[in-house]
Amino acid sequence: MQHGIKRVSLSAEAKRLKLEKDKSKIAHYKQLTENIFSLRNLQTYTVESLKETTQILQINPEFYTMWNYRREIFEHLKNNIPVEDYAQLMDNDLKMLMVILKRFPKVYWIWNHRRWCLFELVKINRVDWQYEYAVVSKLLELDSRNYHGWQYRRFVVQNMQIQATTKAAPASKNEESLVVLGINIEEFKYTTSKINKNFSNFSAWHNRSTLIPKIYNLYLQLEAPSEKSPDVYDIFKSPRSILTHELELIKTGMYMDSEDTSIWLYMWWLLTEKFFTDELRKEDGAYLAVLEEQLANVEELNELEKSDHIYHWDNCWCLKTIILVKGLIQQEHVKTNKSSALLTQDIKNHIQALIEIDPLRKGKYLDQLEGKASIIPIL
Amino acid sequence: MSETEEVKAFYKEKHIAFVVDQDSHRSFEYWLSEHLRMNGLYWGVVSLVIMNALEDALPQNEVIDYILSCWDEKTGGFGAFPKHDAHILSTTSALQVLKIYDNELQVLGEEKKEQTAQFIKGLQLSDGSFQGDRFGEVDTRFIYTAMLSLSLLDELTIEITDPAIKFVMACQNFDGAFGMLPGAESHAAQVFTCIGALAVTDNLHLLDDDTKLGNWLSERQVLPSGGLNGRPEKLPDVCYSWWVLSSLAILKKKHWIDLQKLEDFILECQDSKDGGIGDRPDNQTDIYHTCFGIAGLSLIDFEKYNFKEIDPIYCMPTEVTKKFRKWKK
Ligand SMILES: [Zn+2]
């Protein structure tokens, strides 16, 4: 699988030269491979055989069978050396993996081996999740959208929480919640910093959406919530205060780059997520008021965008959002989500306009006009 | 047709040569890709069979001999290459290729069929998910490949599918799409594996309103290229022509994107000189993108290219998949 590599067309001569040059590399690689397979056949589980696998994995970290053999070696060594030495071996592997990961940040097998090593360290009570936390932050500096990196971060954070709640001497429920909350607040702040660096980072928005209900619920469990990170507590007092804070945050982003899909997707979540809407519906007209206010904001931005456009076209994402929000408002009025009741003439006109400015998705808009697809998608 | 619109050609003969040639390119990179050889074989066979060129281009007995030589008797699955360990990904590819040649999987024999089924079933964890081998990597990709393999072996049971699908549904996000694990960000390739798993196990009804998911999938098409990306704010890539379009096809919403523009994008990514398809125009070609580019074209309009029709759930020709029994709840 080649990604993002420019095609180079080699002449016959250049091809021949490359094959010539490859010869010694190939011979070395094949020799190494054969050697390791025969060591494995002889059930050799020594530090020397380990070194052989290191060599080949540094050349080709996707050679999964070699990772497997490496783990088999560890599984045998473990029973024959002191715990301290085994811990040292694992630490060495973590160091080696860090070097390889920087070169191959998207190889599943490397991430998986790192996980395996950490669980080995868990078994002998020598794991340092804090260190891993620093490692993954560093790797996400190199590529702030790395899918594996974000997943690994959630994995580390999850284990930090497990560790905090399974200490030998059980702390009080309140103390436990405090620690777990602290970890999640750090994560929340991390998404804020990633977003401030780049509003398009949907990976950060995604994580933020999973952290919000969690942090809110953790605050609820505290005996004295307002004492824990008061600045954050200000935001998390109620679903309502969170919503206000988040809508303010995305408003900035919208004006900075109205074509950025990340912000709009996040806004749609804010305006339709039960966590917020259930709370708003407790107060008469509160949900409608939020919707009306957001509609006004987006319409205002759309007007600005229109005046900037040579043909005075609507902004595509503004218009998509206007349709959604008007649909949500209509839904509050008619108390149903039936397409027929939501498709007012006004909304139909907007959808018609979208067909013009977003023709890629014309088929979807036609389905919406015919009532075959909802204008307010629900999960 | 106006004069400015050029008709883009499909370089069928060159692609056939490109696929067949994979093995003769003995560069260093070729040796470095042994761990992908079984998948590579599957990508090659699918490319050829869809272009109606399999029989003439690849000797069937050699393909089958190769697959059997990758059997790992320690575990009862298939590795990517002789002596390599069995893994669920290479096992699925092996079964898919064998099934294309032989609906009854006779070359495998009853004993190996049984062992393969046991290998896969043994990878299911208590939360319903599947690991790729005994070393614990978990991912919705492995649920899809497990469901698919067990379907090809006619070994699905409700005891296996129910917990697996429960896990799949836990991977759905607020945007309607799916990630690799619960809590993981939505990703088009993971969406395919999740919808595919639902479809293979007769569970599509769980997406009772699929508009949100359809929406997310249709938003993957971007301008100016007309190609599809895998996540918001990422670059388009030919392989998503498969992951996204097959998902839309399973949801019966292919018309939610501009198929003509996508077709143009795929054709644009061909290497008109040496054959093969790359991830983006003017990029390096490989067998993986060649396969998914061709599979995408088959979904768009198989008749126009005189292709075989591809099954969006199994990524195999429909003439193969309609021959075997589909599992019903
Ligand atoms: Zn790709």
Automatic annotation (TrEMBL), chain A:
GO terms for biological process: endoplasmic reticulum to Golgi vesicle-mediated transport; prenylation; protein targeting to membrane. Transmembrane segments: none annotated. Pfam families: PPTA. Gene3D superfamilies: Protein prenylyltransferase. The keyword Repeat applies. GO terms for molecular function: Rab geranylgeranyltransferase activity. Keywords: Prenyltransferase, Repeat, Transferase. One of its GO terms (cellular component) is Rab-protein geranylgeranyltransferase complex. It comes from the Eukaryota. InterPro entries: Prenyl_trans_a (IPR002088). Its EC number is 2.5.1.60. It catalyses: geranylgeranyl diphosphate + L-cysteinyl-[protein] = S-geranylgeranyl-L-cysteinyl-[protein] + diphosphate. Catalyzes the transfer of a geranyl-geranyl moiety from geranyl-geranyl pyrophosphate to cysteines occuring in specific C-terminal amino acid sequences. Belongs to the protein prenyltransferase subunit alpha family. This is Geranylgeranyl transferase type-2 subunit alpha. It comes from Scheffersomyces stipitis (strain ATCC 58785 / CBS 6054 / NBRC 10063 / NRRL Y-11545) (Yeast).
Automatic annotation (TrEMBL), chain B:
Gene3D superfamilies: 1.50.10.20. The keyword Repeat applies. Binds 1 zinc ion per subunit. The keyword Repeat applies. Its EC number is 2.5.1.60. One of its GO terms (molecular function) is metal ion binding. It comes from the Eukaryota. Keywords: Metal-binding, Prenyltransferase, Repeat, Transferase, Zinc. GO terms for cellular component: Rab-protein geranylgeranyltransferase complex. Its cofactor is Zn(2+). Residues 10-316 form the Prenyltransferase alpha-alpha toroid domain. It is an enzyme of class 2 (transferase). InterPro entries: PGGT1B-like (IPR045089), Prenyltrans (IPR001330), Ptb1 (IPR026873), Terpenoid_cyclase/PrenylTrfase (IPR008930). It catalyses: geranylgeranyl diphosphate + L-cysteinyl-[protein] = S-geranylgeranyl-L-cysteinyl-[protein] + diphosphate. Catalyzes the transfer of a geranylgeranyl moiety from geranylgeranyl diphosphate to both cysteines of proteins with the C-terminal sequence -XXCC, -XCXC and -CCXX. Belongs to the protein prenyltransferase subunit beta family. This is Geranylgeranyl transferase type-2 subunit beta. The gene is BET2.2.
